[in-house]
């Protein structure tokens, strides 16, 4: 082969190699554009938490979501069933139980477990509420009680993910993240989404229940710890002055902006925002959790300094009375200062045994502070625009749990087919009971509300259309409510 032929051959080979890479690059660029990952196509603004306009006029501006992990017993709290005591110790007919799945209960030998609770009507609406919740009962006219919730998950982790993230899968954004993604941050000094946890036994779902999932990390919940230093690594190390820190942040942000210009990764924008927000939080966060400026009457109303009664089992949430009270008061302080979404999480409502003492202990822990929160928000003119939610991943069975090895039947197993949840404020029409269950709270008898219906309603109250609020990830447009049919429960909206 002549030198000329070798040159032509080499050039042709080089052309094919380079052009194939070029075609591959173009294909990759096309995919990245579809996913909104190129800088010029990125759907995330330079400040991912910039305030955005809702789809339509909102009724709620902020939300306090109180999540009681474990599954509180609905027929002992919000859904009275007189037949429980009438049929105590008797089996339920197969026509009711059907092919229900249980976590531990032995279906063949299980019998109805009665209740020692007394229900009375409260408020002008005449809402039936258990004697375990005397304080919340005084707020009945502000509450919309949903007795017809249902889910398809009967174990804790998938159930928690379902209620908080709309899917029984790890890696999906939480409802707080979706709201923050849709509306941005209303505060310059505090996160848009804050999480506070008081642990009894711990939370199986952990941080996955307040994760941003595939959304940029700017939209994840920020956990505030108990104590004077609510956020880890927020304060400067010894020897680092505010001026030095500010100079470091400027330098880092300049580098990150250069990288964002060339790559367009939304996580870079999230990183820039996190540095700047952390700098501003150094003064705002400690002031937020410091309750010294609150009146004694307010502290007493929330029960901040309550003496906790003794209980043997940790499933009663030992050591959390004062913590939970502080969380409720801090939640009010947060929404006053522009925090858009607050999660208050308390674990330890999973009462497979010793239901009566443990449920009573937990209710005594949360009843007073939650009622104080509702009344405090109302007195300050904030309840109308602050949505308050009380709920869990599922309910409990009418059948007593007869797990192998149990000497006595004193608790209830997991029950996803019908359970209770309530909402107040933020555009909710209070003083009503929505839905109905059968005589044993086993199945929904009227006006069922799915988890996706529940989420669609929350988004609607914030002025967000659940069908339009989406995020493209790996070539698919994801929504909080998924692809299954979901509806706004219009009867709940005032």
Characterization of this structure:
This protein is an alpha/beta fold and 494 residues long. The protein has 2 domains: 3-34; 62-237 and 281-492, 3-Layer(aba) Sandwich (Alkaline Phosphatase, subunit A), CATH 3.40.720.10. 34% of the residues lie in helices and 15% in strands. The chain has 12 helices and 17 strands. The protein has helices at 3-34, 83-86, 94-97, 134-137, 156-165, 175-183, 242-263, 266-289, 296-302, 321-336, 355-379, 451-461; strands at 62-68, 119-122, 127-130, 143-150, 193-198, 222-223, 341-346, 386-391, 395-400, 412-415, 419-424, 432-434, 436-437, 444-446, 449-450, 471-473, 476-478. Strands 1, 4, 5, 6, 7, 8, 11, 12 and 15 form a 9-stranded mixed sheet that branches. A two-stranded antiparallel sheet has the order 2-3. The protein has a two-stranded antiparallel ribbon with strand order 9-10. Helix 10 packs parallel to helix 11. It starts with a helix and ends in a 16-residue tail after the last strand.
Strand content: 15-25%
Helical residue percent? 25-40%
Looking at the overall shape, the CATH architecture of the largest domain is 3-Layer(aba) Sandwich
Shape label: globular
Number of helices: 12
Q: In terms of per-residue confidence, which ranges show pLDDT below 50 for 5 or more consecutive residues? A: 2-45
């Amino acid at each position: 082969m002549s030198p000329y032929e070798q040159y032509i051959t080499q050039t042709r080979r080089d052309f094919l190699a380079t052009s194939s890479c070029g075609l591959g690059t173009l294909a990759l660029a096309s995919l990245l554009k579809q996913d909104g990952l190129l800088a010029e196509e990125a759907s995330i603004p330079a400040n991912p938490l910039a305030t955005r306009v809702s789809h339509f006029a909102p009724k709620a501006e902020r939300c306090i979501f109180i999540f009681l992990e474990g599954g509180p017993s609905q027929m002992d709290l919000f859904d009275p069933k007189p037949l429980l005591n009438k049929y105590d110790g008797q089996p339920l007919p197969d026509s009711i139980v059907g092919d229900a799945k249980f976590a531990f209960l032995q279906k063949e030998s299980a019998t109805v477990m009665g209740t020692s609770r007394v229900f009375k009507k409260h408020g002008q609406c005449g809402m039936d509420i258990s004697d375990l919740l005397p304080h919340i009962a005084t707020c009945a006219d502000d509450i919309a009680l949903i007795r017809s919730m249902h889910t398809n998950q009967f174990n804790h982790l998938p159930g928690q993910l379902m209620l908080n993230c709309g899917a029984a899968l790890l890696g999906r954004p939480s409802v707080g993240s979706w709201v923050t993604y849709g509306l941005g941050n209303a505060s310059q000094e505090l996160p848009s989404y804050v999480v506070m946890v008081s642990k009894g036994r711990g939370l199986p779902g952990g941080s996955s229940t307040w994760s941003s999932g595939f959304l940029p990390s700017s939209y994840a919940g920020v956990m505030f710890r108990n104590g004077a230093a609510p956020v880890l690594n927020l304060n400067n190390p010894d020897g680092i002055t505010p001026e030095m820190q500010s100079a470091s942040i400027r330098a880092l942000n300049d580098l990150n902006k250069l990288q964002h210009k060339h790559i367009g990764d939304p996580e870079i924008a999230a990183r820039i925002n996190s540095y700047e927000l952390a700098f501003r939080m150094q003064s705002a966060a400690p002031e937020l959790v410091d309750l010294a400026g609150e009146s004694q009457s307010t502290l007493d109303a929330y029960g901040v300094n309550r003496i906790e009664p003794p209980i043997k089992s940790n499933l009663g949430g030992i050591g959390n009375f004062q913590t939970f009270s502080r969380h409720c008061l801090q939640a009010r302080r947060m929404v006053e200062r522009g925090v858009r979404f607050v999660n208050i999480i308390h674990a330890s409502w999973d009462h497979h045994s010793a239901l009566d003492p443990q449920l009573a202990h937990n209710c005594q822990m949360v009843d007073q502070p939650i009622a104080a929160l509702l009344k405090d928000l109302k007195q300050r003119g904030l309840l109308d625009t602050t949505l308050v939610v009380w709920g869990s991943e599922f309910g409990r069975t009418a059948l007593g749990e007869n797990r192998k090895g149990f000497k006595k039947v004193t608790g209830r197993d997991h029950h996803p087919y019908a359970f209770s949840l309530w909402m107040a404020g933020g555009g909710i029409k209070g003083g009503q009971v929505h839905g109905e269950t059968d005589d044993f709270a086993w199945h929904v008898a009227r006006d069922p509300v799915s988890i996706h219906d529940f989420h669609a309603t929350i988004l609607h109250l914030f002025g967000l259309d659940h069908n339009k609020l989406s995020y493209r990830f790996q070539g698919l447009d994801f929504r909080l409510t998924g692809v299954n049919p979901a509806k706004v429960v219009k009867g709940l909206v005032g």
